[in-house]
Every structure is written in structure tokens, then in C-alpha cells.
Amino acid sequence: MRSEDKALFRAIRGKSVERPPFWLMRQAGRYLPEYREIRGKVAHFLELCFTPELAMEVTLQPIRRFGMDAAILFSDILVVPWGLTQNVAFKEGEGPVLDPIRDVAGLASLTLDGFLERLQPVYTATKMIKEELPLQTSFIGFAGAPWTVATYMVEGGSSRGFENTQRWANTDPAGFQKLMDILVEATVLHLDAQIRSGVEIVQIFDSWAGVLKDRDFAQWIIAPTVRIVKALRAKHPTVPIIGFPRGAGAQYLGYAQETGVDVLSLDQDLPLSFARDVLQPVAAVQGNLDPVILAAGGSALKTRTEEIITAFRGGRFIFNLGHGILPHTPPENVALLGQLLERAGRG
Length: 347
Description:
Elements: H1 7-12, H2 33-39, H3 45-49, H4 52-66, E1 70-72, H5 79-83, E2 88-91, E3 95-98, H6 115-118, H7 120-132, E4 138-144, H8 146-155, H9 163-171, H10 173-197, E5 201-206, H11 214-235, E6 241-245, H12 251-259, E7 263-265, H13 272-279, E8 284-289, H14 291-296, H15 298-312, E9 317-321, H16 331-346
Parallel strand pairs: 1-4, 4-5, 5-6, 6-7, 7-8, 8-9
Antiparallel strand pairs: 2-3
């Protein structure tokens, strides 16, 4: 089946679909017992990402169970700094831990030489997954946006206030721009390699976009994304690009207009009326069920799912979450969501 004939592509291009197509962020993950079984076989999270047979298996698990309209490559946004030779580890109960880079002098430890070679297991997994996916299932690749990846590289892990990142960006913007330039180039290389290995759509995750406002948002969120989109379009003009500036609020509109992404992935805090009336006329929209509601299930899940479908009916729309599936989500709730979407198609 041609990519453009699949449900996800048809929805993005505004063509008719039998029901809202869906996939879920973090659909391969800890809420699935079969994932936990695989995860228990490896010592480190990155070992799972860099073992092609295992990355393929966990990518396919939710497709076998729930029949989503798209699979998303199992990997992590922090493979990019790892590929740049920054030390990256994942510790149980702590999350990612990186050797922090907090000034321009620290950039000397990074290199793009050998970047694609170091990440070759990711692209090997991509090729393997492509061979095993059902013909009707779209294949999504992804990368973190430069700002979001930079926060981990500078803070040395997860953060709430991003003090070190914002201090560098504000006190030495020229130096911080050099880090962003490296990340733009690495992101283009990484997404291009995924596309050449078989993915049909790419998503750019800017999970911490909401930290920035106004001029900072334009400089560190929009500008790098524009460069990435332009570079990918020059190489792969028919590959749809999904942008996810999580927490951007009213800044979603400027992001859509200036970056030219094909799809806006909406977080759960965006009002449906704003998304429908302001954003959906500009780009296809994806989202935005609250992961907490999916975890709760029952009548709350049914009601909110119906509200989202009703709001976006008639326009370009992909059903998804406003962020990733929570680890304690019962798998039967995901199955119920699939059933609700099927009923929406029949209705």
C-alpha cells in the first residue's frame, strides 16, 4: 500500500477517512506487560534502544494488541546527544543523567563526526520494523527539538526550572546559539536517516516549549524548527512533519504559521474551541486526550473521547493524547479507546 493511501496520510491531507485515525505517544512502554518482560532482559534502557531486534519487538507490540493506524519507532530523544558523544545514562527512579555542558567551552566535547555511525542500530531497527509492519500501518520517526534536547544537555537531566539553560541562553546567546546550531544539524541528519530507512512521517517533540515566551520562543523554538523543516522538505518533500510545541498555548498559532509543519500535536491544556477554530484551519491537528483520563477509563474516557471527536469532525484530524501514556494505564483502557473510535466511524 502506498503511504499516501493510508489512513494517517489521508487525514493529514484532508481526504475522507472511515473513522478518526489514531496512535498514542508512548504507545510502546511500561503499561504493557509484554514491554516490561522485554525491558527486564536488558541492563540499561539505552541497550533496549540500541538492540535492533528488541527495539523492533517493542515497537510492534501495541500494533499487535490494539491495531493503531501508526507505529512510532521505539527510541529516545536523548540518542542525539549520545550520538554527539555526550555521556548519557538512564538510572532507575532518577531518569536520564548526562554530563552537563553549561558554556561554549563545553561544546568542544561534542562532535558530529561519526554521528550516524554511532546511531546505526537505530536505523537498522527502522529497516527491520518497516519490513514487519502491516501494510496499512503508517510508520512514524521522531527527534527531540533543539531547545528540549538542549535543556537535558545543559541541566544534566530532567529539570523543572531550567535555570542553567535559561542563564546560558540569556547571558551568552551567541554561545548558546552554537549549541543550537549543532543540534539543528544533528536533528536533520537523524530524521533524514530515519526517513531513508523507512519511516513515512516524522514528529518533532518540543516537550519544554512552554517554558519560553514571546521573543525567546521565536528565537529558540520557532527559528530552529524552521531550519529543520526546510532542510527535510528539501530532501523529502512528500514526508509529513508533525510539530509538538507542548505547553505553547496561544503561541501554537505562530508556531504553525512560521514553521510550516503539516500537523500540530496538541497538548491536553489547549481548549478544544481554540484548537478547532484557530489551529485546525491552519494545519491538521493531532490530540489531545489527557493521559490521566485514559488511565482512569470508564465514563470519563467515553465522554472526553466523544467531545474531542465532535470538536474536530469534518477537519484534518488524528486522534492522540496530549502527552505520553502513563505507566499505570490499564491496557484494557487503550482497547476501549480503539473501540470508541471504531464506533465513531460507524456512526
